[in-house]
Amino acid sequence: MTVPTLRLTLVQAASALEPEANRAALAELAAAHAAGSDLVVLPEAFARDFGEAGSDVSPFAEPLDGPFATAVAAAAAAGETAVLAGMFEQGPAPERPYNTLVLRGSAEASYRKVHLYDSFGYRESDRLTAGPVEPVVVEVAGWQVGLMTCYDLRFPELARALVDRGAEVIVVPAAWVAGPRKVHHWRTLLTARAIENTVYVAAVGQPSPRYCGHSMVVDPFGEVVAEAGPGAPDAPEVIRATAERSVLDEARRVNPSLLNRRL
């Protein structure tokens, strides 16, 4: 089914260390912003923040039918939409859970982060297990939506694999750690993934000061459709944007790089 638009709502909000508080915040934020949205996206690790670098997050891991995923489903049902948010999921290694996105509501999927953040002095793989290399694309309101998480953004081959499976929009929940040049990297990489794949890219991050914020939607020509500021932990920022199929089709006609590939 060809649908002309996909209405996106990105909620740039900080997660806390208390899972119950995050579930309550999820319900409140979704209720406030779901109206008129086909997809509401919250950041990576929204079920429970990472805590101090190197912290053990395994006590906060849940199954895919646990309290957080159930809260996501309830929020989506109440808003008659789809809601995507990040959690830690129990896996085969109890001490090293998955970093997982759960999509519930009018569309359902789960994605386990493939690329763990072993970079810039961090060692995410010490505490988490990488997901299988299996790109996840799901239909949301008639659009093919590919899922990535944070550090995945630095690996263009994953974005291309999503597009090879039909993705028209790539959604990137993140907790992009703040630091020198990090906002520049974030904005540049989001724009590059959009241009090189002629897709929409919708990315939502946790806010400053620990993270970078700057949630944004980029169209297939690389134009920024909407962008948040750095934000603050006590002030969620919401941006809305509409993916237009006419823009997607025009970009792929004018810039047929996917058709011109030789590798």
TrEMBL record:
Domain of life: Bacteria
All residue ranges annotated as the CN hydrolase domain in the record: 6-247
Annotated keywords: Hydrolase
Cited CDD domains: nitrilase_3
GO terms, molecular function: hydrolase activity
InterPro entries registered for this protein in UniProt: C-N_Hydrolase, C-N_Hydrolase_sf, UPF0012_CS
Entry keyword annotation includes Hydrolase: yes
Stated family: Belongs to the carbon-nitrogen hydrolase superfamily. NIT1/NIT2 family.
Protein's name in the database: Putative amidohydrolase
Source species: Nocardioides aromaticivorans
